[in-house]
Design goal:
The chain is an alpha/beta fold. It folds into five domains: about 90 residues, 2-Layer Sandwich (Alpha-Beta Plaits), CATH 3.30.70; about 80 residues, Alpha-Beta Complex (DHBP synthase); about 170 residues, Alpha-Beta Complex (DHBP synthase); about 90 residues, Nucleotidyltransferase, domain 5, CATH 3.30.420; about 140 residues, Tetracycline Repressor, domain 2, CATH 1.10.357.160. It contains 22 helices and 29 strands. α5 crosses α9.
Length: about 750
């Protein structure tokens, strides 16, 4: 007989790991114990050498589906007198931490029980087990035990307690476990109906949806606003009340067969959609499927997710004459964070929702749905949140304990500790007090969960970002060093870290976005960099152009287009749609503004160039959500068109005169807008290839990292990767974090780690 102590770190708590170890030990005649600790899972295993070997092999290679083993350390120990195998109480170890499991969609076993009339949890909206249910949203502390969650206030009944205590039951130590007798409850209320509880409340909510009304549903990480997506009047009413003019709504369906009714979906997309995370997946819509234009204006795609909680399944359950496609959008007023308490929902959403479906399970961390697409069979994120946060990015080497606070838009923050980088869920745009509060509360919550007191802090270089101001305050209050990181350097580093880059060599960084504060105080955004985690140089950039009105101009692509024409010496002819859309007063004010350089900062932004082209061809002159012009321009591209405009390059500057001149010529010749849009996209891809070839010859660099919000553009991403691949470049794209500003907190962290080390 021999004995071993095994210490496992990773996502190994709240995922059924201890009962798995227990049953595996029984299988191989192992005696000893297993327990949770603040550092992960510990096992004492006694047995013959062959039994121990078989046991360890199975634990390593066949863990529970939600488990993720990061480290597995074995050490010899003297044999002892254990006669059986036990599960011991959790051990708190000061200073230690473990990764926390994200929230997980309902599993197939629980879904089967949900609709089984013979089951005691039949139609219970909070059914769960160790393979599914809430995690991050209910955790208040570690170890992940029931007293450290918002479920602590619900005392288990005898039947649930027996399941909770039975190592052979899939609900063994499932911390949110509950049933209709002892767990959270749901109820519906409206201005016209009093509170209706349990099944009556669910049926009332379904009737509201059937009647074309809007309801607010308290879900896993906050409230959704829901309505019948095929009822144009209901969707228009929701847009008006929510103050969301054009931005596409997310939708939800009961099952994958309904997805296939409305959208084209390949095997990889179906796998992602049906995964444990159940994210929103952007899919092309089927021709002939008449989903109201108001659901996703001017889009050829639809954002769809499968119902991921038992409550959603009960609300969406198919029935004759009942809708099968629902708008399921964040429960907020535009630009505000999602409402997540019953009180805040009543306060914020009463002007939008006709009724409320409440429940009394408290949400500790509010969280939005994740949004992604599929690229070459893999996930490609637009927003990383529910289901994925706070999964860690594993770093090549141990890191200092760093807090990086991200940017202003699509904010996330990041905490590093040892080899882990914990990137937060999507916080949003730091434009109002409620979002800022969610940001500061989130930082405190993550620091508590991961038992870290950050030794260093990093932020964006922009002095007016609220995240930057917070970092300066935090640095002073805690007397820790602060590093301000240039925005596009953070993008480059984020892409490298996302690809587990462990090299001191430089890479080519093609960092294209809308806005980033430059080292020269100008607004950057069309940047070709050379660098790594430590330093970078700006090798090429788009020509500087005036931005009349500064940030406010972003809402008016026609004004930006006029400013670009003025700077390049083109006349403001009324046959140009962008100029025709401006009033005489606007043109007079702009001429004075441009001549006298009144509030006209310079920008090298690729995002603004997309705005200019969109307005020049008459597609979009004003916007009401971020990147709307660029998104709509991509929607009219045609993959069959191979022609391209040409950018001219002089020294380190990418000039715009030639490409704007050719676009104006095509406008004059009545060339179709889809042709112009496609030639513009192709021009950018070809430009990147030309510049990468120049850099390869000069510096012998072969790796190209694509980062920045422009790389959400799938046409441009596919086109650029294709031609770079054909030329032999190794292309690095994002895999686990978004290419937009939702990823820069990771870049800031790895740059700060290199700097402070």
């Amino acid at each position: 007989m021999i004995s071993k102590i095994i210490r496992i770190r990773g996502t190994v708590q709240g995922v059924g790991f201890r009962p798995f170890v227990f049953s595996t030990a029984k299988k191989y005649n192992i005696t000893g114990w297993v327990r949770n600790s603040s550092a992960g899972v510990e096992i004492l295993a006694n047995g013959t050498p062959q039994e121990i070997k078989n046991f360890i092999t199975e634990v390593k290679t066949n863990p529970p589906p939600l488990a993720k083993i990061d480290t597995f350390v074995e050490s010899e120990k003297y044999s002892n007198g254990y006669k059986d195998f036990k599960i011991l109480q959790s051990q708190i170890i000061p200073g230690e931490f473990i990764p926390i499991s994200p929230d997980v969609a309902i599993c197939s076993e629980c879904q089967k029980e949900l609709f089984d009339p013979a089951n005691n949890r039949y139609r219970y909206p909070f059914i769960n087990c160790t393979n599914c249910g809430p995690r991050l949203t209910i955790i208040k502390g570690i170890p992940y035990d029931r007293p450290n969650t918002t479920m602590a206030e619900f005392t288990l009944c005898d039947r649930c307690q027996a399941e909770y205590d039975n190592p052979l039951n899939r609900r063994f130590h499932a911390q949110p476990v509950a049933c209709p007798d002892c767990g959270p409850q749901v109820w519906f209320e409206s201005l016209t109906t009093g509170p209706e509880k349990r099944e009556e409340g669910i049926q009332r909510a379904r009737q509201f949806l059937r009647d074309g009304k809007i309801i607010a549903i308290k879900g896993l990480g906050g409230f959704h606003l829901a309505c019948d997506a095929l009822n144009q009047e209901a969707v228009s009413k929701l847009r008006h009340r929510k103050k969301r003019s054009d931005k596409p709504f997310a939708t939800m369906v009961f099952d994958i067969e309904t997805v296939k009714k409305y959208c084209l979906i390949n095997n990889a997309e179906e796998t992602i959609m049906g995964s444990y995370e159940h994210p929103i997946v952007i899919l092309p819509t089927k021709k002939g499927m008449h989903v109201p234009e108001q659901v996703a204006p001017k889009m050829r795609t639809l954002g769809v997710m499968l119902a991921y909680t038992p409550l959603h399944l009960l609300i969406l359950e198919p029935e004759n004459d009942y809708p099968d496609l629902f708008v399921m959008t964040s429960g907020n007023i535009s630009d505000e964070p999602i409402a997540y308490t019953n009180e805040s929902a009543k306060d914020v959403l009463s002007s939008i929702a006709d009724g409320f479906l409440f429940h009394d399970r408290k949400i500790n961390t509010r969280i939005d749905d994740s949004v992604l697409t599929e690229y070459k069979g893999q996930k490609y994120f637009y927003r990383r949140s529910r289901g994925y946060a706070p999964n860690a990015t594993i770093l090549p080497k141990n890191s200092l304990e760093i807090l990086s606070v991200g940017g202003e838009l699509k904010n996330t923050f990041c905490l590093t500790k040892e080899k882990y980088a914990f990137i937060s869920h999507h916080i949003g745009d730091l434009k109002n007090m409620e979002t800022y509060r969610a940001f500061t509360e989130g930082i405190a919550n993550y620091q508590h969960m991961f038992n870290t007191k950050s030794q260093f802090i990093a932020c964006d270089l922009h002095p007016e970002y609220l995240s930057t101001k917070y970092a300066c305050y935090y640095s002073e209050e805690n007397n820790i060093p602060l590093l301000k990181v240039q925005h596009h350097h953070a993008h480059l580093a984020a892409c490298l870290a996302d690809n587990n880059w462990d090299s001191n060599e430089d890479a080519i960084g093609v960092c294209l976005d809308g806005t980033g504060y430059g080292l020269d105080g100008q607004i950057w955004g069309g940047e070709i960099l050379i660098g790594g985690y430590q330093t970078f140089q700006r090798k090429y950039h788009l020509e500087y152009m005036p931005l009349p009105g500064g940030d406010s101009a972003i809402l008016h692509p026609n004004r930006i287009a006029a400013a670009y024409l003025w700077k390049l010496g083109f006349p403001w002819d009324d046959h140009i749609p962008a100029i025709l859309s401006l009033t005489s007063e606007e043109k007079n004010v702009m001429k004075r503004q441009l001549k006298l350089h009144i509030n006209t900062p310079n920008t090298s932004s690729m995002g603004r160039l997309f705005d200019v082209v969109t307005s020049l061809i008459g597609l979009r002159h004003t916007i009401n959500y971020e990147a709307q012009a660029a998104i709509e321009l991509e929607q009219i591209t045609e993959s069959s068109i191979t022609d391209a405009y040409i950018f001219e390059i002089s020294e380190n500057t990418i000039n715009l005169n030639s490409i704007i001149s050719n676009i104006l010529s095509d406008i004059n010749h009545k060339i179709h807008s889809s042709v112009i849009a496609t030639k513009f996209h192709n021009a950018i891809a070809n430009l990147i290839l030309v510049l990468c070839n120049k850099i390869e010859k000069e510096y012998n660099l072969h790796h190209v990292a694509l980062s920045g919000g422009v790389w959400q553009n799938q046409y441009l991403l596919h086109k650029t990767c294709q031609i770079l691949d054909e030329e032999g470049f190794s292309v690095l794209i994002h895999h686990n974090i978004p290419p937009n500003d939702g990823g820069i907190s990771l870049g800031q962290a790895v740059i700060a780690n290199k700097h402070f080390k």
